[in-house]
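#dry-run=false #mode=assembly
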Amino acid sequence: MPISKVLCRKLSGIAAAGALLTAATVSTPAMAQQPEQYFPVASMRVGPYNAMGTGIFGGVIDYLNYVNIKHGGVNGVKLVYEECETEYNAARSVECYQRLLHRGDQKMLLWDPYGTPLAYAVIGRVAADNVVLAQAGYGRTDAADGRVWPWVFGATANYWSQIAMKLNFIQQKEGGIDKMKGKTIVHLHIDTAYGREPLPAMRQIAKDWGINLIEIPIAPPGLEQQSQWLQIRQAKADWVTFWGAGAGMSGTALTTAARVGFPRNKIIFVTFGGAEEDMIAGGAQAKDTNVVAMVLPGKQWPLIADIEKVLYSGGAGKGNMQNPNRVGTIYYNRGVIAAVNYVEALRNAQRIHNKVGKPVNGAEFRDGYEALDYTNEARRKELGINGMLPPYKLSCRNHEGAGTFHMMQWDGTKFQITTKDWIGPNDPKMIRALIEESAEKYAKENNITLRDCPN
Amino acid sequence: MFYREAGQFRTSYAQDSQIFPLRQDRLGMTIILLIAVLIPFGANAYWLSAILIPWLILSLVALGQNILMGYAGQLSLGSAGFMAVGAFACYNFILRVPDIPFVVAVVLSGICAAMVGIVFGLPSLRIRGLYLAVATLASQFFIVWSLDKFGWFKNYDPAGVITAQKIIILGHEFVSPREKYWVVLAIVVVLALLAKNMARGSVGRGWMAVRDMDVAAEVMGLSLLRTKLQAFAISSFYCGVGGALYAFAYLQTVEPSAFTIDLSFRILFMVIIGGLGTIMGSFMGAGFILLMPIFLNILFHSIFGKSVDASVISAVEQVVFGVMIIMFLIFEPLGLARLWQLTKERLRLWPFKH
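#status=ok
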């Protein structure tokens, strides 16, 4: 019975580890003098999407720490966080959600897992738990209707606006909507809910404009795309709207496109598959690829520059990024903006509910999130993010936000912004109508009474 | 000493063929069941909804896989696919059949999975071993593909995600984790007892005969067709019920790609780690594969906290988990259930060793 012997021999070690664990857990409840507000971090640091996870959650954590160091918290309330690894697995993320739901005497206010399947996995739970589901640019699209989904916020955009914006961009390049008739556009997507999410809006526009739309799925994780690109070549596609995830899949798409000779400047990547890491994985073949951006990259923004100064420069060693060179990349900046949303919402909640300097609860935080407002330029400048994200404002009915984007092109080493201004769908009202129609269908199926919204 | 059988006489056939012949086992089982029923009063929502419910459900699925692989010896890699059949069948039964009782819907979805299982079990009549495992892979891909392809299964949801309906039994709505746990527990206990009885009865002996040597079994008069397909059907039934519970009592919103090949592999590992051809091993293996990563995550986070880079911690967790599996299989290839059996044998002699 060797295993029992091994166990016996290791018993002291196991006991020591156990003691260490108890010591660690006993010592955590620090004697908090300063009021604290707790934020969960559903990180994703291993697996195929780790480039995204480390970047985004590094940005989130850096901003929380930055607010603590630079401003002493939000009106004196210190921001604390707790991390749990989801591995981009819906079941694991539910476990994380439940684990992080309570921390000491505080309950979490917000859940932001950065993955469409992960958002779907908890979307039925958040209302009952009084938790805001922040799905910044991902997740369930029709949740942009605040009447049906009071607890879900898509700020700053969603997938339907994004695909409509892509088609709008193509239409401008081709010289007008009337030129789009008979054009072949391939929606090459990962075969998951995330990949299919933009299809309803895309089909509608394709029908209206007379586009020949071809949908080609790729089985996850998408490292084999030879037949799909040959099919694209055969169909003589004019444009490809690529909807992938993870550096592996994105890189494979670009190298395979090069192999079959499909021009990269006719490929438009989605926000979640188009970052520096994805382009680098494509190597030299990635040059000229178009990518949609909902938050702009770079260190030229005062906030990012200041975060780098406070947390990284001179060996400050307070940053969360393992590789400090990634500060200012797309994923990083998007994470920072996500955390700016949390903090602004917290600030709003404190103001609205007369709790300045005190922690707020879930319902109060929700009201604060709904009051997010980036239309004031002075405030954007104060935050140091003017120009980094589109100006927008949430309301009771509109939980999407801006729904506008920039287009970027990869020049081989970094992204160049190719659009002058934030652009959205050609017909935003049509997209909004689709969203509300879908949300109402959901509400009817699930016996949800619509919230009465003035605007 | 703990397992002393002295003084326990069986005087009738009924006593001799009971499920737990030892008084100690009967007592132990009663205590475990009592704890299982009463635990919601002591456990919080996290324990119930994030640990116990998925553990019970995955144990059920592992049990299904174990019936096929451990008892009947048919290597299969499609268990997540059958789970998907169960989940989507249950959703559709409740959606399309007015006022169908939840339990009936679950049983019917198990039967749907069983029928699909029979179809994909047909190759087992011609091929065996690893070849069969590769053939059953087809079920995994085919099922997920067809659920994705045909909108009807998902009620034409554009993103292909279903929202599981409420669990309503006899007019009572099961909302809280505690109530859902009891529903899951009841179903799992009934099916586990059923499996135990099948495994030790003539059905199970048929499976084991086929597993050990199918030619000999056939020569002795066992119908290979019947036995193998029966194993596939029952195994898929368990997976289907597990899948329905996974969707309704655990995740609530599911998409077909939640049931990936990755999940199939994890179920396979549960069976191997737990112990092939044991009922208890299915529960232990599911516990190990499901709970160990969570335990390691909590352990490392509480030991190292934020002092060590979180990416490193996450990577170390996976390394440790992998090493644990390798070590375990080297030292006890017969699984966790075998460890318990050895412990029992030692406890019988304790404190006097040979």
